Amino acid sequence: MTSRERWQAVLSGKKADRAPSDYWATGEVTSRLLRELNCADVGALARKLDIDLLRGVGPTYVGPKFSQCDMWGLARVRKEYAGGAGTYDEVVANPLAKATTIAEVNAYPWPSADWYDYKAVQPKLDALGDWPRKAATYEPFLLYCQLRGQEQALMDLAMLPDLAEAILTKIFNFFHTVAKRTFESARPGSIDVTYVAEDLGTQHSLLMSLPMIDRFLLSNMKRMIDLAHSFGIKVMHHDDGACRPVIPRMIDIGIDILNPVQWRCPGMEIDGLKRDFGKDLCFHGAIDNQHTLPF
After folding, report:
1. If we measure between CA atoms, which residue out of 286, 287, 168, 160 comes closest to residue 221?
2. Residue among 165, 227, 233, 224 nearest 198 (CA)
């Protein structure tokens, strides 16, 4: 089987010639592997290590140029990990932190789905050959926290619910439109997976209550999932931490793949997940990158 055939078989409930694999890493790890294994790019690295790499494509950005921030108005600075092991970008200003009214939300300069060239999608897919393909992402509360600040974002759900819904609606409308136009621009069957994510688990429990998840996130996540399924595209749901209590809800709204399966967290033991949810889900990950890999 090719890498794409392997993914497609498992996602359709069939048995592949072997378990498909994938690769996620920080830029520093990838750079070192490319250098030490003498590979020109990540595709060559995946071939050398026999990894069935899920490759992402999207429309080409043709919108306004921003120098001090991104299109959401978010400014970032480069930070070093402790010990100098690498760097990451951290949001340093939350542009909607002081908003208190829906009028302020409506007046904010939101990005437009028209800032992309969707004609570029199919040529990018064609160039992938036999790699499995992913297109479009949606992770609304992560972006919400960046716009408002995480502490304020969590307080909003209890104290300013109408404001929270207004901002989350703006975020949803953008990503739904981009995803729909991306899927429409591709030939049927050209995209295998889309990404509908939200980090709802901490190391010990859920980040917010189930009623809040129901109110603020599930309906729009379902609309994104329904959109993908209408194009024959499977949905990968990324959800860190101890997220077991929300998994039945995610199955109800249609997710196909659960990632990353942090099995050291309470309730996320692999045998229990397989027993209770294996008939409904594919599991992607389950490699412990908090203890096993670094130590």
Report:
1. 168
2. 224
Q: Which two tokens stand for residue 282?
A: 């594919």
Hey, what amino acid is at 267? G
Residue 167 has pLDDT above 90, yes or no: yes
In 139-266, DSSP assigns E strands to 193-196, 234-238, 257-259
pLDDT average, residue stretch 239-266? 97
Name the DSSP class of 283: E
Number of H helices and E strands in the chain, helices first, is: 12, 10
Flag whether pLDDT at 82 surpasses 90. Answer: no
Cα–Cα distance, 45 to 253 (Å, whole number): 36
Q: Are 117 and 63 in contact (CB under 8 A)?
A: no
* Distance, CA of 31 to CA of 7 (rounded, Å): 26
- The residue among 179, 186, 167, 62 whose CA lies nearest residue 119 is 186
Beta bridge partners of 89: 78
**Phi-psi sector, 109: left (phi>0), alpha (psi -120 to 50), beta:** beta
